[in-house]
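We modelled the chain as a single entity of 259 amino acids. Its sequence is:
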Amino acid sequence: SSDSPAPLPPEHAPSITAVHATDVDGTAAPGIARLDVVRLVSDAIASSGTAYLPLLVLLLPTLLASLLAALASTMGSSGIAVLIHLLDAICIAPLIGGAATFYAQHTLTQSRVTIAAALRRAADRFVQLLLAYILVYAATFAGLLLCLIPGIYLSVRLVYTFYAVVIENRSATDAFKRSLMVTKGHWWPLFLALFGIFFLVGILAYFIFGVALRPVLDLNSLNSDLLVAVATCLLGPIGVMYYTKVFLTLANMAEPGGH
């Protein structure tokens, strides 16, 4: 789009962590690349450093929403729990997610930004962020209704709509197309990179706090849910850095001359 920023200068460009895929005979397959998931994870953890606490502060409202929803559900107020989840999806997630993404981008490109500036950026882009959420959820839900597989496929292809709105200053519709473009040809490694690892982490957190430690610590369902929410939130800053780094890598690969 006309308001999209120019490519990052070399000194701020994200490190390319793509390697050539290979044919069955072991030779490099021309024109095909895959993401090095292990390196991306290690890079995201290494880059978190000083950004971890600011990102954790930014993500606290989402934790609070999860805790309040869990509390309301446990007390039998399912209507209030649904209302909290709706408020989180419509207001908190676009604003807080946008601010965290903007902060992570500046950290990864070695430029400075304050929490307040990140929140202002997300507030400025709030309408487009909300529209992006609606577009992605509508498309994914439609895919799930048709069949489970199309929904999963679209969830991967459209995951970076939100990031393109924040980082590249695109409209929701343009960001929708941008996500389809940068993820083209990378579905399987993206599925592993974006969903596989953190899905496993989520399962691990659930089994540790929801199953293994529940009888040991004599936890009720509320305390167990709260501990899972807290554990998930503590991993949130690394997750934001990781997802943002994958987007910057894909965007750089999509530029003319990118690898």
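As a brief sanity check on the tokenised model: The first helix runs from residue 37 to 48. DSSP finds ten helices and two strands in the chain.
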